Amino acid sequence: MAPRKLKEGVFSVGAIDWDRRLFDSLIPLPLGTSYNAYLVQGAAKTALLDSVEPALAKDLFANLDELGLRSIDYVVCRHAEQDHSGTIPAVLQRFPGARVVTNQKCADLLALHLRIPATSCDIVADGAVLELGGKSLQFTFAPWVHWPETMFSFLREDKILFTCDFFGSHLATGTLYADDEHDVYLSAKRYYAEIMMPFRQKHPAYLQKVEAMGPALIAPSHGPVYRRPQLILDAYRDWTSDKVKNEAVIAYVSMHGSTKLMVDRLVDRLVGRGVGVKQFDLATIDIGELAMGLVDAATLVIATPTVLGGPHPSAVYAAYLAGALKPKLRHAVIIGSQAWGGKTVDTLQGLLAGLKLEMLDPVMSKGLPSAEVLAAVDRLAEAIGARHAALA
Length: 392
Ligand code: FEO
Hints:
alpha/beta, Metallo-beta-lactamase, Chain A, Rossmann fold, seven-stranded mixed sheet, 12 helices, 35% helix, binds MU-OXO-diiron
């Protein structure tokens, strides 16, 4: 992808990863992603903001070549994760005079992960300004947007805020701006759910800081640039708030159909009570979809057969994931089937314990669900419905 101009002297020069389908060997990327690097050319100095995933280094260098760049004065590193920093060593080889401008925590991580020596780095403080000549970058530390070293960079003259992963979306597109708001919103929500949600408590303070800056453009490190910043600011305000929606996520796995009969009954009764249901078959689910469902839901139902004395491994994975992603759930419950004993309920409740939810009474069926079991499922739907009604 050719370099794309945001403003005079400001270019998007990163790479689009159209074909990547998995991030961190964990996160599905159904729509690919991008690694956004930006070039800011002042009258006196030129700064490159971040780099790209090393596998796509050639795209970054092709963009810099196309702009006729002969030197870079600064490589501003705002986040040490390798999808943004991994090509910095190659940039320093290509432009040996360039200094890495970063904060101390980020410099420590660059030394750890990429062996970039401290002698290559100029350390900045929170609030510091890098003057480029008619253009200046102000740095705002934002630790734990998801790593401890992240910092935003505000190009004051053009009011462009570069936010690293914050506000990002895993979306490969040739369109520079987030004008297709529906698609970008969904990709940004998926990104938030998978990457940002565990750090939700930190985000409202950063939202306030961003709003105070009044950016005209928000340029994250993944996905399109927001020229209507309110789109992503409103979305993050919603997702990071404590408000849950009248929604239940039902994550289920069934081996011979008994658990599925219970799920079908529960879904039917919940829908009848006006509860929004998002149902996911753990045997086939893209876990990003499950993570997105957890952003707003008030209740999590994990439904599983008992196999080898405990929950199905897919249910263990879902419970572990929910525990790690720290969604703003209020209630959870385990349902399922078993032929003989097992530790299904204890194991899953243990994995969710850190969320400090109200755990509703489990419903476990011996084999095919009986009329009594289905009546217990009905009572569970009633209990969930009553709690959701109280949310309003
Ligand atoms: Fe896109 Fe935290 O790296």
